[in-house]
Amino acid sequence: MQTVTTLTTSDPAQRGASVAMGNFDGVHRGHQAVIDAARRPGLPLGVITFEPHPRQVFAPDAPPFRLMNAEARRNRLERLGVNVLYELPFSRALADLTPEEFAQQVLADGLGVRHVVIGADFCFGRGRKGTTDMLRDFGARMGFEVSVVPLVGSDTGVFSSTAIRQALTEGRVADAAEMLGHRHRIDGPVVHGEKRGRELGYPTANMTVEGLHLPRLGVYAVTAQVMDGPHKGTYDAVASLGVRPMFGENTPNFEVHLFDFSGDLYGTHLSVALVDYLRPEAKFNGLQALIDQMDEDSRQARAILAKLGR
Prior knowledge:
It contains ten helices and 14 strands. By secondary structure, it is α/β, with parallel strands linked by helices. Helix 5 crosses helix 6 and helix 7 (161-169) runs antiparallel to helix 8 (173-180).
């Protein structure tokens, strides 16, 4: 998958695509319906999205809300068969374009799209004044087709990033996965931590969750995909998301212990899928009590993951 991080492209292979357009935070089932509608025989399948997320520009002091960082979103879109990702740099200057200027300068002239697919609730341009009907009119004049996909949902409501955040906040990872159409993942490089897990017999790969909406703090059964390096592959694992109350820390951290693994993962990238929530974070009466609980967490996680049939 090619990633384009500009408002314009002159590469013929990156022009003339049929594109789905939106923020695609989580790439949930509603987003996937928009992407599927953009699949056209003979045309590259593209996605237009924005980085950073517009909300980060207009409300920089708001609590972290993203379900995915840019890396996780790219990985998910590649799994869906997207050929070209137009990851447009979002700024106040871009937001200040009128709907017509955005359609002409970015979609028609800049990226040379042939077909644009949007969800029924999509808005664009200065003040979010651009509507689906306006985009259809612009496309007819500027040389690209426009399709609008109805909102997708189930008996419990429309699939939305907001509903998925709520499910994750409550530890309902199965409900989140049902709305997402895939398990919620945390992606990123392995960073150096305090290395306490190694001393306890449970070495962990540490990952940052900065800028992300936090699922319920606690311990999870997970699968960990090593994306690169000599240990590339998928492993069963147990993970802890929390502030490590045993050690008096308060910065959220994500620590993943890969079962039956030996090797150096520093600098490699992981994609960790939350399979099941095991228990809340807790403070224990001494290190042995913590180790005993980690043994039990690992036993439970192994049992749950064994049922996946991988």
